[in-house]
Amino acid sequence: MGTGERNQEAHVSEGSAATPPRTLAEALRTRGDASLAALLRARPDLLSPVPNDLSQLATRAATRASVVRALERLDRFTLQTAEALAVAPDPAPYEALRALMTGDDGDPAVEAALPGAVGTLRDQALLWGADDRLRLVRTARELLAPSPAHPSPTGLGPTVAEATAGMSPGRWQETLAAAGLPPTHDPVSAVTALAALFSDRTRMSALLDTAPPEALMVLERLVWGPPYGEVTPDPAPPVRWLRDRGLLLPTSLRTVVLPREAALHLRAGRAHRVPEPVPPAVVPAHAYSPQVVDSTAAGQAYTALATVEELLKDWNEGGPAVLRSGGLSVRDLKRTATALDMPEHTAAFWVELAYGAGLLASDGEASERYAATPAYDEWLELPPQEQWTRLATAWLHATRTAGLVGSQDAKGRILAALGPDLDRSAAPEVRRRVLALLADLPEGAAPAPEQVLARLRWERPLRGAGAASGAASASASASASASASAGTPGDLRSRIALWTLTEAELLGVTGRGALSSHGRALLAAGHGTGAGTGTGIEEATAVARAAELLAPLIPEPLDHVLLQADLTAVAPGPLRRPLADTLDVLADVESKGGATVYRFTPASVRRALDAGRAASDLHAFLAEHSRTPVPQPLSYLIDDVARKHGHLRVGAASAYVRCDDDAMLGEILADKRSQGLGLRRLAPTVLAAQADPAALLEGLRGMGFAPAAESAAGDVLITRAHAYRTPPRTAPAPVPEGPPTPDDTLLGAALRAIRAGDMASTAVRKEAPAAAPSPGELPRTTSAETLATVQAAALTGSAVWIGYVNADGAASQRVIAPVRVEGGFVTAYDHTADEVRTYPLHRITGVAELADSP
Known about the structure:
Blueprint: H1 3-17, H2 24-29, H3 33-42, H4 54-61, H5 64-72, H6 76-87, H7 94-102, H8 108-123, E1 127-128, E2 135-136, H9 138-144, H10 160-163, H11 169-178, H12 187-199, H13 201-209, H14 213-222, E3 228-230, H15 237-244, E4 249-250, E5 255-257, H16 260-266, E6 284-287, H17 290-314, H18 330-340, H19 344-356, E7 360-362, E8 370-372, H20 374-380, H21 384-397, H22 427-439, E9 445-447, H23 449-459, H24 461-464, H25 477-486, H26 492-507, E10 510-511, E11 514-515, H27 517-522, H28 536-550, E12 562-564, E13 568-571, H29 577-586, E14 588-591, E15 596-599, H30 602-610, H31 615-625, H32 632-644, E16 649-651, E17 655-658, H33 662-670, E18 680-683, E19 686-689, H34 693-702, E20 708-709, H35 744-762, H36 783-796, E21 800-805, E22 811-822, E23 825-830, E24 835-840, E25 844-849
Parallel strand pairs: 16-20
Antiparallel strand pairs: 1-2, 3-5, 4-5, 6-9, 7-8, 10-11, 12-13, 13-15, 14-15, 16-17, 17-19, 18-19, 21-22, 21-25, 22-23, 23-24
Helix pairs in contact: 6-8, 6-9, 11-12, 14-15, 17-19, 18-19, 21-28, 22-26, 23-26, 30-32
């Protein structure tokens, strides 16, 4: 055991044996390393930067931004416990808290869960003090306590003392007399008497027995909140009866409030109408065999790969232009959805997935447009299972949320696919949590989406209420409860959860709503951890295992098709890449599904001839890859198009047509459909046109001819599709949600620094004969006194407190244990840095002995 560890244990044991802590900092000093590490892991924002000591850590833990972030990560019951503490006396004994949570009748489930909730609040430094003096952190109490601007989530109003501040003595005596209480001589006694009446179950019941029925109905409307109501200058008799007896206290000329003590009596002592100590269960709604789930998910995974490939093939020669504000235009998204034969919101998901995986990016040119990246070509060469794991991993980690495409931002602007405003930092956490809930079910079991949403709302009620920003009010949990009871996914987390269920099915992570075996393996990295992600080694292992499980489920690519007499070809499964690429040029896709149907047309054959293929090449290709004989109509079609192909030549004059057959040129001139091309005969074998070459080619092909384009040298131009690629691009980095969870190495270093700094700041020094320095001031001693003191400390092995100024002029206080003093330097173990260091004596401003050596 090192010196630092021994000192730390001594420090903790002394703190635990001392008097009860008076502040949060003192409470933190009684904790061990494991407890402090758990606090820093649960609230990583406290480490940015590392606090100098425990006092600074306590101050940072009580700031509004940090407290709001911590409250957002509480589950519903723990948050209800904090809300009850906010309306309890400060400090509150555990029994008072238990009474607020269970009510007069008690609740075994709440009583069983309450110690765990209190422990969670204490572990996260939102609560401190022993069980007889529980204190909620002041900032948390301010956020959760009731006020006119922000009613308490409990629905309770202010206490009698808070609501009657400033009430006149005459009004007090009238209220006491109406309530049947003796008069008092001061407002403090009056407040005590009225609060005692409302808190006394027997006397309060007797008072309410005399109330008119209409007055009781008024109380019923206010008892569960909001506790405020409007009144007229001349209120109705039931309201007047309540106001006269203090059951409704005026907060303004037209507003009254039900005091907290009276509301608690009407609620039978409960702070919440429905405490929720147990999370909603997620149970199977449907059950399938694991083999069916895996087969379905594998089919979806293969379809996902084909869809991404089809998308990027459509953008192979350069995709849509980038909007000036960034992203894809609505028109281009519609065109892409039409090309992929799917709804626009689904097309937006695939576009965003390709972008998140680094397969798609903008080219960065002056006329910026989207295109595939060089990483796409590398991705194409991977085995299908590795292609899928790359897509699935990118989806799991992405903060970009495709479901937001088409909605409006806070300024009313439409959010565009690939636009700059789609990042939602909560998305990876929600995705992993949804899949983790599926993983907790038996294999092949699929839950109802409503159960998943209910569980997520219980686990993060404030996040569900939309209080994700640091400035958001913690009172938003009331709206979260209302949203949960209504069953409408209006909050962002619920919508992300629903999108996750849909996207997981599209991607093949789930099959029929149940988590697949390869999806379960992919989730194994970081499953069950607070961060939701594992180490790099864990994740690489999980990805490899997922690919291994998926590989045998993906069908092997085929090297053949079935040619039919109706000029179609049927691919009974996925095709190998060279065959698929050639067939895409030679034929048009007619239908997709388990088997893809291709149709041969004159235009598709001409497209293959334009790409440089000869008729003999096409015949040989079909004969090689067809399991059925090549139909005669298909052979005739290829020969007929090839015979006409290139007989006419189109070049650039504006444009011209030349042909050795002057009769064919005459036929073209006589055709009425050629009038828009502006043709005229220049020579027996040449026609000039006013249209450009591309329009002339399309016009002649529309008339049934098969012209070929030629270069200025008279050579036939081969019109192959040219792949356009962006420069190398990195995939978009996820936007983190606050500081990342620290690893064990960082936690250990931070704890040592905080402990050492705390030791230096709290060390007790002996009184010097001269005036002792004020707190925070460096000690001042002469050079001779400094040398003598550190030499004595080195001989006795004791520690001293020094003031030190480094080479940059930064001053600090340190506790050191000198080991050797020679040559103008002192070598010592520095408790502040938890390491051995050497200090020049001339930079030590002064030294003082410690009352008790650490």
